Here is the input.
Amino acid sequence: MKVYLDNAATTMVDPRVVKAMLPFFSEKFGNPSSLHRFGREAKKALERARAVIAKKINADPSEIIFTSGGTESDNLAIRGIAYANRHLGNHIITSKIEHPAVLRTCNSLMEEGFEVTFLDVDEEGFVDLKALEKSITKKTILVSIMHANNEIGTIQPIEKIGRICKKHRVYFHTDAVQSFTKVPIDVRKMNIDLLSISSHKIHGPKGVGALFVRKGVKIKPEITGGSHESGLRAGTENVPGIVGFAKAVELSSDDDIRKMSKLRDRLISGLLKIKDSKLNGPRGKKRLCNNVNIGFRGVEGESLMMYLDTKGIAVSTGSACANLLEEGGTSHVLQAISKDLEFATGSIRLSLSRFMTEREIDYTIESVRGIVKHLRRISGFE
Ligand code: PLP
Here is the structure.
């Protein structure tokens, strides 16, 4: 049996997405900036896709800037705001559990003279709203707090964060790469100024994403050239990819969320029956519907992952990119939430998709149980 439980890293492109993309490689290959019929056809598809994505988050189509993915969207948001608003202040607030696309961008801005506050999180990964508000100074220009964490699935109270930012008149960016289509987003109601999303996490193609930029927000482009994407992101648009991204959004549904939440809870309760195990991150509605992250005492997460691979089950330790930020073999997210690092080093992340079945979940629970037992026996833990 083959079980793919690493959907937070990337997802299978839905065959219906591939079908929607195909004509844009061949007969509809035009450049959307061209004025002839080939160009107009591509432009129409591009603007239709923009409208689909805008509607999903209650934005205006003119506020959607297509990019090459979540990483570029995060970079454009943070650097773009920092460089355009430097005259107003040089302080940025973020959290310790952001994706490297945010953390490393902030680190690099620090080398250029910006000051960054990295907020602590509690043992379930939540930012303390009082600490956030307290850290805002006259020099603060941007708060960047992710919507849902890619390793432990914590969903931050972004509506409350948006309110705080609005009250203090600082821009609010949220990385919604993991939450988009899995948690309802309304950029107006949530007072979000900038929001990053990515196609390959939602059964769309890789190399496509978008940044929502609220009308009136002062931001500097990262990539200069032609006047594509409202002058904020030069370069001929990836039309097939963007069409696929929009199709993936149209295919997402509340039924998927319900289905994944149910299977997630089945997986969590099955795995927690293994003794000396611990769930990382919150439970229920405050947790991403497709995220499970569990630690086992006396086991190395890496070994567990490799043994599961031999059984056809793909999981991960931490996240694919977070490996870059590891210290002492433990992810920066687990270090930020854990007092007990033994659980952290013995943790694996299992992330579901709408294609998962109960049978696959049960096979995974049984396999993890057997492997944990084996690893504990050979390490002398039991
Ligand atoms: N932000 C988060 C929270 C992510 O999980 C990821 C991908 O792992 C990214 C950003 C980067 O997105 P992309 O792979 O589209 O560059």
Notes: The pocket of pyridoxal-5'-phosphate is lined by residues 69-71, 74, 99, 101, 146, 150, 175, 177-178, 198, 200, 209, 321 (CB under 6 Å). The chain has two domains: 3-11+253-379, 15-251. Residues 358-379 form the longest helix (22 residues). The chain has a mean pLDDT of 95.
